[in-house]
Records
---
Amino acid sequence: MTIAVPMLDLARQHRALAADLLPRWQALLEAGQFIGGAEVERLEREVAAYLGARHAVAMNSGTDALLLALRAAGVGAGDEVITTPFSFVATASTIVHAGARPVFADIDPQTFNLSPASVARAVTARTKAIVPVHLFGQPADMPALLDIARGCGAVVIEDCAQSFGATLDGRQTGTFGLAGAFSFYPTKNLAACGDGGIVVTDSDDFAERVRRLANHGVGAPQEYRVCGFNSRLDALQAAALRVKLARVDAWNAARRAVAARYAELLRGLPVVTPHIAPGRTHVFHQHTVLLPQRDRVAQALREAGIGHAIFYPRPLYRQPALAAYAPPQPLPVVEDVCGRCLSLPVFPELEGQEIEAVAAALARALTG
């Protein structure tokens, strides 16, 4: 008997957390502490310690984390920033909002992360920064990208929106470049019950610039040194994130177990399951496969009540907002991947019978 399977079910997670989460929120409501304060400061210290970074600066979204990191790095008008076209729009739109020009490089056909060879070809005298995305929870090739950045004098800002807890050779994403920008959007591996983000860095000066930008540019009381933003994390979200941080390793392990079960069940079918590069700990924010006749398969899954999504159906340079930044020629790997990718349900609370139902429905769609 076919069962319906959701792409994601956040209610399952929050039911299990209620006994820990609600008393913390009640205490904050009674104290009237809503913006910043001790709860946010504790979260910053705990995230920095978890990731192995010197500083963490919390703010209101992962998008602002990217934007403020770029601004704090001095990215602005006349600069070019090399990044991936296979990502959420914020990866590139924040570059535009910083005043710079996004330059799109192609992706690796196995990991879907930035191709270092393509990045090297995209470098010009105006390259100010490189923004790799640790896509779907797998670290990008940071040693190769850092070598390129050193060679051209660029800074590296890591987009870690999908990679909290992922490691490369035992080192956490977000700690390789000048800074890492994380999202706490409700669907993320470490997620708020609303929105939130954080920037991590080992630079004292950089952390101070980010912190100032996130709070209206304030220096001393009633002194505003730069024109900043209102990008502060609220205490209720910090409390939720602290509860969840203690569980994120177990949740990421559960995601890997789901992926391993999919690999078993889908073996022998005409589907390319996720490749994990050597030295990587993948945290499977998404479980993305490559399929023939993707749109037909997606329709069959929809009719069977199986949750799925397409991340991402077209390269960012084919989005109307970013068409002005399209490369001279389409990038062949990303064009191919965008036409064949499909993401299957992967979340810690997914049950064994649900995983089997997804695999069975996919098998029927591929062979029927």
Note: The mean pLDDT is 97.
---
Amino acid sequence: MNGLAHKAVTRLVYLALTVASTALGFCLGGAWGLLLLPLCLCFWAVGAWNTIRTERELAQLSHTLNRILHGEEHLGVEEYCEGELGILRSEIHKMTVRLREQQQALQADKVYLANSLADLSHQLRTPLTSMNLVAELLNKEDLAPQRRAKLCRELSQLLGQMDWLVSTLLKLSKLEAGAIPFRRDTVPLEQLVAQAAAPFLIPMELREQTFSVDCSGAFTGDVHWTAEGVGNLIKNAMEHTPAGGSITVRGRENALFCELVVEDTGPGIDPQDLPHLFERFYRGSSRNQHGFGIGLSLTQRIVTGQGGTIQARNRTPQGAQFTLRFYKGTV
């Protein structure tokens, strides 16, 4: 039954009830009939007025929804009233706000994806260009054996950089998508740091850098992923510490959290880079020109994914310091 038919039936019912009540009143006595007739007419008028008011408010609500569907940003909350219609308006308002938030989130995701693809393309283009140049040089028949061997080493190094970049980006994407569940294991802090620093001990020795560890207590969390995150900090410190410098990892545990501090004696972090240090592909003025700017971003995802925090600052008189805290409860 459509709206017009429903209104017609409602009015006929009201009319039938009025006629029946008035007839019954006249049957009981003329005075009762004269009393019931205006009373029924009054009820009918109130019902008609209420129907007209409801229809007007529904039309206004429909017009408001139409404006929202066509991009109107404002939804007049101050116009809402009490009652069932007011509840309906309130729920529609909540729904439209939620839909608008989802639309904005989807748009932000699209922009983020486009920027990520552009950054990834830019990062891959550099080693690919170098590899093409090396391949062209290797095709020369009159190339000296020593020169060919050097170019092969450069090509191998470029391939290693691309492999590391793609692998790290895949890990970062999985972490951002929440597709990696973190384990909960307990190991001594010294063991965690030893696992993280193992790949860099020989490079630090070749650079004549001193590496020291001062840890006590235990760590509870995903040992594999945390060791990779701490390893990125150690690698970052190694690359920015001059020959003869020192890199120190300190760790402690208390009733609230487990803390790891990685610090070096390098030139420190440019103050303008500190707010953007953990952004993906960010390469500040003090960064190693051979880096990709994703190691620190990966470390942040690993730490925050386990409910921890990471902070970077400059030491006095010089050097950088990264502080990781893994809390034992919700903070």
Note: The chain has three domains: 3-74, 111-176, 185-327.
